[in-house]
Amino acid sequence: MSIESLVTRARHICDVNGARFTTIREKVFRLLADTHGGIGAYELLEQLKASEPAAKPATIYRALDFLTEQGFIHKIESTNAFLLCHHFEQHHPAQLLICDQCGHVEELHSSPLQQEFVKLASEKGFLIQRQTVEAHGSCQSCLKKASND
């Protein structure tokens, strides 16, 4: 999917939600859309400074908070990185497969896994309000590369 189509969809959601998709927020969104895998806030800040030299850490964190609230990105807690979600029309739980070798992140959506997780939490008297499951390992490309070495 093209970055332009993602931006158009994000603008539409912001319009529907009455949220402001400011120039800075859009630039950070575009940087995330152009990144394969997770990216840290300070790396994003350095990229943003190419077009916004006065950008500070607070600039990037405010934009990331907004993008997270709108459901446009997922935070990868274990690596303190951010990932653009391509399914942001509706908030959803995510399962992330994170390659420890190359950093590739694959987003999954397993309803049976989510239902079982909610059921087990409910049995313990726990209400899940947001959920991201992270699994670390090796992606197919890295496994192939390792077997060829």
From TrEMBL:
SUPFAM superfamilies: Winged helix' DNA-binding domain. InterPro entries: FUR (IPR002481), Fur_C (IPR043135), WH-like_DNA-bd_sf (IPR036388), WH_DNA-bd_sf (IPR036390). Pfam families: FUR. GO terms for biological process: negative regulation of DNA-templated transcription; regulation of secondary metabolite biosynthetic process. Keywords: Cytoplasm, DNA-binding, Iron, Metal-binding, Repressor, Transcription, Transcription regulation, Zinc. CDD domains: Fur_like (cd07153). GO terms for cellular component: cytosol. Fe cation binds at H91. One of its GO terms (molecular function) is transcription cis-regulatory region binding. Its main location: cytoplasm. Binds 1 Mn(2+) or Fe(2+) ion per subunit. Binds 1 zinc ion per subunit. Zn(2+) binds at C99, C102, C139, C142. Its cofactor is Mn(2+); Fe(2+); Zn(2+). It is found in: Cytoplasm. PANTHER family: ZINC UPTAKE REGULATION PROTEIN. Belongs to the Fur family. Homodimer. This is Ferric uptake regulation protein. It comes from Rheinheimera mesophila. The lineage of its organism: Bacteria, Pseudomonadati, Pseudomonadota, Gammaproteobacteria, Chromatiales. The gene is fur.
